[in-house]
Structures are given as structure tokens and as C-alpha cells.
Specification:
Blueprint (H helix, E strand, L loop, with lengths): L6 E3 H9 L4 H12 L2 E3 L18 H9 L4 E3 L13 E2 L2 E4 L1 H7 L3
Parallel strand pairs: 1-2, 3-5
Antiparallel strand pairs: 4-5
């Protein structure tokens, strides 16, 4: 997937760190983060045709929009799942497995 450019936000990275229990998990995460472009978390603002997301998930979508990515991948089925397959301000929301099925290799 040479054409794929991976991006995450500092907000998402910090959320991932908080959800890990062991030093090994944290070390693995840091290694993964080193291979990604890290973008800042934008200020909250209205989102056109806004999905009803909890306040803690809005920064994830806003960062994707502000970074002008084409896809936002989330395994959070509870909050992002209802919007899978939907494009919000140019960002297509998908579960990771679906992205892997559709992306050219």
C-alpha cells in the first residue's frame, strides 16, 4: 500500500496511550506512531451535516477534516459505526477492514 499515507492526531494518540496497560503495549504504540504523521487537534467548530458523536469523538473527526485526509478509519463501532460509508466534509468514514478491502495494492 505504497500510496497510503497514514495520519493520526495528537488527541487520538493520547487516547490510545491512556487505554494501554503495559509498558510493552506503550512501546509498541510509540513505534507505530513514529511511522505516522501526527497532526494537531483543531479547535471545536460546527461540522457540516454533523454526525451525532460524543464530545470525546468530535476531535477525531475534526482532525481528519482539518488534515484533509480522504478516509477516517475507526474500529469504534458504537460511535462511528452508524456513519460508516458516509462522507463528512470530504472524509469517508470506514472500519479498518473495509478500507483494506477497497484500497488498491
Amino acid at each position: 500500500m505504497a500510496a497510503v499515507h497514514l495520519v493520526t492526531s495528537d488527541y487520538a494518540a493520547e487516547e490510545a496511550r491512556r487505554n494501554l496497560d503495559t509498558a510493552e503495549q506503550r512501546a509498541n504504540l510509540e513505534a507505530l506512531l513514529a511511522a505516522l504523521d501526527l497532526v494537531g487537534t483543531p479547535a471545536d467548530r460546527p461540522i457540516a451535516v454533523a454526525p451525532k458523536l460524543p464530545a470525546k469523538d468530535r476531535p477525531i473527526l475534526l482532525a481528519a477534516i482539518e488534515a484533509r485526509v480522504t478516509h477516517l478509519l475507526s474500529g469504534d463501532v458504537e460511535h462511528f459505526g452508524p456513519y460508516y460509508g458516509r462522507t463528512v466534509e470530504g472524509v469517508l468514514l470506514l472500519p479498518p477492514a473495509e478500507f483494506l478491502r477497497i484500497i488498491p495494492r
